[in-house]
Amino acid sequence: MRLAIAQINSTVGNFEGNLSKIKAAVERAKAQNADLLALPNNALTGCPLDALTADKRFEATSRYYFDQLGSLQFPIAMGHNGHAIIITNSNTEACNSIKLNQEQTMTVVGDSTALPPSTPNTLVIETCSTDYPHFLSQNTPSTGCRTIRVNMVGGNSSHLYPGGSTVYNAIGQPVQQLALFAEDFALIDTHAIATAQPIPTSNKPRIAMLHDALVMGIRDYMAKSGFTQAALGLSGGIDSAVVLALLHNAIGPKNIRVLLMPSQYSSQHSIDDSLAMVRPLGIQHDIVNIAPLFDTARQSLSDIFAGRPENVAEENIQARMRGVLLMALSNKFGHIILNTTNKSEAAVGYGTLYGDTNGAISVLGDVYKNDVYALARYINRNGEIIPQNIIDKAPSAELRPNQKDSDSLPPYDVLDALLYDLIEGGMSSSELKQKYDSATVERIVKLVWRNVYKRAQIPAALWVSAKPLTAKPLPLVNSWLP
Amino acid sequence: MRLAIAQINSTVGNFEGNLSKIKAAVERAKAQNADLLALPNNALTGCPLDALTADKRFEATSRYYFDQLGSLQFPIAMGHNGHAIIITNSNTEACNSIKLNQEQTMTVVGDSTALPPSTPNTLVIETCSTDYPHFLSQNTPSTGCRTIRVNMVGGNSSHLYPGGSTVYNAIGQPVQQLALFAEDFALIDTHAIATAQPIPTSNKPRIAMLHDALVMGIRDYMAKSGFTQAALGLSGGIDSAVVLALLHNAIGPKNIRVLLMPSQYSSQHSIDDSLAMVRPLGIQHDIVNIAPLFDTARQSLSDIFAGRPENVAEENIQARMRGVLLMALSNKFGHIILNTTNKSEAAVGYGTLYGDTNGAISVLGDVYKNDVYALARYINRNGEIIPQNIIDKAPSAELRPNQKDSDSLPPYDVLDALLYDLIEGGMSSSELKQKYDSATVERIVKLVWRNVYKRAQIPAALWVSAKPLTAKPLPLVNSWLP
Predict the structure, then answer these.
(1) B116 CB-near residues (< 8 Å, 6+ apart)
(2) Fewer CB within 10 Å of terminal CB in chain A, N or C?
(3) Under DSSP, is residue B147 helix (H, G, I), strand (E, B) or coil?
(4) Which of B338, B356, B358, B453 is most worth mutating to test chain A (most A CB atoms within 10 A of its CB)?
């Protein structure tokens, strides 16, 4: 059989757009004399569907467009509303196991469908919407059959689908893989799978995969939400520099605008390093000193704060003034604001609510600090994009004189390892105390617990781990209207 | 049988505190020669448990404290981890149907347990944790048996449990009801239920119930999160006035602090009306004019905004400056900030993100605007707490000269009715267009959909409807530490 695979990038609820992509794939499959077109799970509706599956209005719309597929008069294998099916010349004939053009039998299974009994001659088509964290940990098929795993690609809010659809022979060896993080199309001779040469699994190194996933996530979040321009505050620190580089890789320099917002506590190197990054990239940037705003706020509060020493209240005013300026830029010109909080900070609540935590999407909210550094080194692999000084200097919020992150937190190597064991590993405090200093464990576990309220107001993060802390996936703005 | 009912207010994960309450109830039951003590569902763990039920560390802690109940050597009927059980002298004998002291049989059922077959002589104990919206719509028992419905009382984050445990005779008539919105204790002679005089259902009018639920929610959120002081911004409008009155009813005037933050666009009546409210109540208040902050921000942005007309960017700067000042107060003195957004605004995104939407808990985020007015009238039922002028004047954000809510939105009577049909009623756009002006329907439905992103960053709301928009319930700060 000649099997066409279309690894498409669907948008949740954008039925017209998704149908257009499917129609184009059908035309291409027909032109290449394919017998069947295989699509990712929920190619028509987009995914994830979450609460939409329970919405009767969504179901009715979905049914209408599903009938359009039948009217294309071309066999399509796909997952739809939890069922893996084959559509022949009309949806009324949908089934999930047929004989087609010399295949003895062919079975289509979905993400969560149990594999039916099959003979070694069965061809299995897995119609998948496996997200990034699960993609990294997925097993090769153990069906004893030739298997075509057709993956969704693209970002939908927090959810990142990496693509990389794969053709496996009957002993689970990959013999062909489609593109990672991009739409792709392939025509497979299913009878040639058994004799095809196995290929190495083509996943890139972990940090390269992470980089590509985040870049795709930014690009798709913007495109699918209707944003063409993006802005962020560049502090001279590692997090905002990495977000800027990822954004630049996603959309290029032209539609980016950056604010540098020093205060009286900012080091000269924060400005110099930031300029050293944006100038070579040709990114539009403005310097707005927040000292006048900070001073006016202290003046406004002087009666109420009389006699009280400066503390975290004054520190947070600075971060929040930066948030006010960025949001004003967004409101005036229509830029989306990217949040620059990382997962280590989000876990312990190190960052100012309504200041540092602002943004429509959190790019690094599911990335530990040490991986932020690894991303920076990866971004610089072919030359310095992020100035080395930004990577080398000690992290600081610069909200008071000579402040360093290490004044409040353990070194990031310790913090990240402990957080990883706590969050990803699910270790209890007593287990953690066997690996780490007791007082540190108690302090960090308490911080993680006490800052749930802060994380609840952080924007949705791009999901790249199995245990995201900040993600609250959202329907996309341009998505289905009830 | 002599049955003691303890309607207690448990805190999620506060095992020591919950166990103390149960021990006290056991002592009281013993002192009154009770044969059995009935407790609300999850009285030991608190509720809701949500993700905690899947946490092995939580389960282990829970098991430890459950064994403590067995060691009290007194029969207890309660719901625990999804099972309704009777603990006799040790947890190993836990069951849900026994004979005890002349009862022919007694069956204990939980919130989600199907009722087992029973004879008319069975005594049914329903151990419940029904939250406020479901409480209002719950049915009387139709078991054909005497039924004791033992309800949880108190607030845990968004979840409000109204109490009001009820004794029903075998034909479903209530014969006794415990307190609403407060802990209570009663001793029932189960053999006297059949001949007891039915009572009227003692639920108060809807708005009185809503008022009491919100007051309990504020009080418990603060107490269980460890806050003694609260603050909010008083604008002179209806929403902040109602939140202040509810807060006052929850904790009294002593620990409240209010900021009045007029701008150049504020009316004199906004200040006068606010002062007319706080002065008689004896609430600490300060006036901080935000004009200097607004002017400094415009000055800071003058290069970037050069040549652009003022628009929503400048409006939002004002709301965000108010947010900065309130959060500074919170950071300096430890006040919890109460959010004053209402459900109608949240639905259509009328309000400034990181400004109006700030706060740890949203008091009115699940209350439509017209119910905010109804609450104001109820609060004033015995005399003017909220100045009549605040109730009478046209709603305005006062972010530009002569602005009115009605410039951007349909009248609240229309808006609320339409939103109610859309959100609570689940009507489609085409159904809505049969009841409302087509253009209005399209505009409002689009606003509701486009502002999902904004609602996602609004703090958790107290849940008082079946279809909350903004609630993201949080574990409480003083809750269980893993």
Answers:
(1) B97, B107, B109
(2) N
(3) strand
(4) B453
pLDDT for the residue numbered A478: 43
| Per-residue pLDDT at B193 | 94
For residue B446, the distance in angstroms to the closest alpha carbon of chain A comes to 7
Q: Would you state the pLDDT for residue A477?
A: 44
Q: How far is B29 from chain A (nearest CA, A)?
A: 36
Whether residue B442 has pLDDT greater than 50: yes
In chain B the domains, ranked by start, together with CATH numbers, are: 2-203 (3.60.110.10), 208-409+451-455 (3.40.50.620)
Count of CA atoms in the C-beta half-sphere (13 A) of A95:
10
DSSP state of B479: S
Query: Is B301 within 8 Å of A323 when comparing Cβ atoms?
Result: no
CB contact under 8 A, A481 and B445: yes
CB A448 within 8 A of CB A428: no
Q: Between A314, A327, A472, which is nearest B316 by CB?
A: A327
Place of tokens 């108190």: B154
Size of interface A-B (CB pairs under 8 A): 158
- Helix (H) or strand (E) holding A433, with range, is helix A429-433
Pair of tokens at residue B481: 């530490």
CA distance B35 to A12: 58
> Nearest 5°: CA angle at A158, between A155 and A160?
35
**What separation in angstroms does the CA of B201 have from each of A147, B161, B165, B168, B205?**
63, 17, 11, 11, 11
Q: Which amino acid is at A95?
A: C
As a whole number of angstroms, the distance between CA B189 and CA B177 comes to 14
Chain B partners within 8 Å of A353 (Cβ) = 327
Are B154 and B213 spatial neighbours (Cβ–Cβ below 8 Å)? no
Q: CB of B25 within 8 A of CB of B6?
A: yes
Is the distance from CB of B469 to CB of B347 less than 8 angstroms? yes
Q: Please determine, for residue B92, whether its predicted confidence score (pLDDT) is greater than 60.
A: no
The answer to whether the complex's ipTM is over 0.95 is: no
Q: For A296-307, what is the mean pLDDT? A: 98
pLDDT digit string, tens, across residues A181-239: 999 999 999 999 999 999 987 678 999 999 999 999 999 999 998 899 999 999 999 99
Nearest 5°: phi and psi at A25? -65, -40
pLDDT tens digits, B99-153:
666 666 777 776 655 566 667 788 888 888 899 999 998 888 877 889 999 999 9
Q: How far apart are CA A320 and CA B326, in angstroms?
A: 11
Q: Are B409 and B350 in contact (CB under 8 A)?
A: yes
Mean pLDDT of chain B: 90
Tens digits of residue pLDDT in A403-456: 888 888 999 999 999 999 999 988 888 899 999 999 999 999 989 888 887 888
CA A14 to chain centroid:
19
Residue B393: how many CB atoms within 10 A of its CB? 17
Question: Which of A300, A303, A477 minimises the CB distance to B292?
Answer: A300
Core vs surface per residue A137-168: b (16+ CB within 10 A) or e: eeeebebebbbbbbbbbbbbbbbbbbbbbbbb
b/e sequence A323-361, b meaning 16+ C-beta within 10 Å: bbbbbbbbbbeebbbbbbbbbbbbbbbbbbbbbbbbbbb
